[in-house]
């Protein structure tokens, strides 16, 4: 019984810590890991670091965009983060 | 036996949650500092909270691991989850103009409403843990007294 308890808790620790690293890898795969751009007029500008240089207010707009293929399609930008772009001064 | 199994399960659920969120914060610490920096809280407490929040999550996980400190761990979990729930409620009730999520890992992709349900669920888990752990302690004391009488 004691061994089973220890095994159960070890599994919980493994899931917690392992899950954190696994989700870190996953977020690297999605668009958030790419350089984020904001649209001003008809030009895209690098947004910088989220939480440090800009924020996305929770409104149903496109906050930032990313380039799915920056080499083969340098002028293509796809929506990534929902919200309203707001620079931090 | 069944009660003990439930206690272990609730403790494990909270350990997974707190270890996941704290480790996620430490892995992406720069992002976490940025998110915390823009919370509508007094500027003096923010540098402290950047450390207090993830470290307390690790400490609660450690407390939940041992049978001797588990009840304290459940109480600490309830306190922390209640803070998070109240905070989520204030966001949903539009107390602030905007609130960036400073939670860890994939949890930040939840909407604020989903966040509220998520927090309520784990608050319930902590409450159930306290109830079961206390009733188990009572049972043990009664058994111990009975043995002494016999």
Counting H and I runs of at least 4 residues, what is the number of helices of chain A? 1
Strand runs of chain B, count? 0
Oligomeric status of the shown chains?
heterodimer
List the domain count of chain B as a whole number: 1
Biggest β-sheet strands, sense, barrel of chain B: none
Fraction in beta strands of chain B: under 5%
Total DSSP helices of chain B: 5
Uncertain segments of chain B: none
User: Which percent range fits the helix content of chain B?
Assistant: over 70%
How are the strands of the biggest sheet of chain A laid out side by side? 1-2
In angstroms, what separates the terminal alpha carbons of chain B? Answer: 24 Å
Integer tally of domains of chain A: 2
Average pLDDT taken over every residue of chain A: 82
How many strands of chain A?
A: 4
User: What is the distance, rounded to the nearest whole angstrom, between the alpha carbons of the first and last residues of chain A?
Assistant: 58 Å
Helix/strand order of chain A: HEEEE
What can be said about this structure in brief?
The complex is a heterodimer of chains A (about 90) and B (about 150). Chain A has one helix at about 1-30; strands spanning about 35-40, 45, 55-65, 80-85.
Describe this protein's structure.
- The complex is a heterodimer of chains A (89) and B (150).
- The radius of gyration of chain A is 19 Å and the shape is elongated.
- Chain A is built from 1 helix and 4 strands; from the N terminus they run αββββ.
- In chain A, the strands form 2 sheets. Chain A has a two-stranded antiparallel ribbon with strand order 1-2. A two-stranded antiparallel ribbon of chain A has the order 3-4.
- Chain A has 2 domains: 1-31; 34-89, no CATH class.
- With 89 residues, chain A is α+β, with helices and mostly antiparallel strands.
- Chain B has 150 residues and is mainly α.
- Chain B has one domain.
- In chain B, α1 runs antiparallel to α3, α3 packs across α4 and α4 runs antiparallel to α5 (112-149).
- In chain B, 33% of the residues are buried.
- The interface between A and B is medium-sized, with 26 and 33 residues.
């Amino acid at each position: 019984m004691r061994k089973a308890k220890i095994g159960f808790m070890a599994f919980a620790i493994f899931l917690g810590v392992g899950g954190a690293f696994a989700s870190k890898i996953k977020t690297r795969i999605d668009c958030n890991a790419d350089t984020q751009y904001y649209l001003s007029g008809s030009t895209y500008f690098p947004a910088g670091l989220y939480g440090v240089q800009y924020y996305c207010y929770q409104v149903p707009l496109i906050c930032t965009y990313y380039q799915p293929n920056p080499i083969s399609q340098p002028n293509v930008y796809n929506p990534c983060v929902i919200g309203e772009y707001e620079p931090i001064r | 036996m069944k009660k003990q199994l439930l206690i272990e399960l609730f403790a494990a659920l909270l350990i997974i949650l707190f270890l996941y969120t704290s480790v996620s914060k430490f892995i992406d610490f720069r992002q976490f500092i940025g998110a915390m920096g823009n919370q509508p809280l007094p500027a003096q407490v923010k540098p402290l909270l950047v450390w207090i929040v993830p470290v307390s999550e690790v400490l609660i996980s450690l407390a939940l691991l041992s049978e001797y400190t588990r009840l304290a761990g459940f109480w600490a979990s309830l306190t922390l989850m209640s803070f998070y729930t109240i905070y989520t409620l204030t966001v949903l009730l539009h107390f602030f103009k905007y609130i960036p999520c400073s939670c860890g890992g994939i949890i930040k992709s939840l909407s604020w409403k989903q966040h509220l349900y998520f927090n309520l669920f784990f608050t319930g888990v902590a409450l159930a843990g306290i109830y079961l752990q206390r009733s188990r302690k009572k049972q043990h004391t009664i058994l111990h007294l009975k043995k002494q009488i016999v």
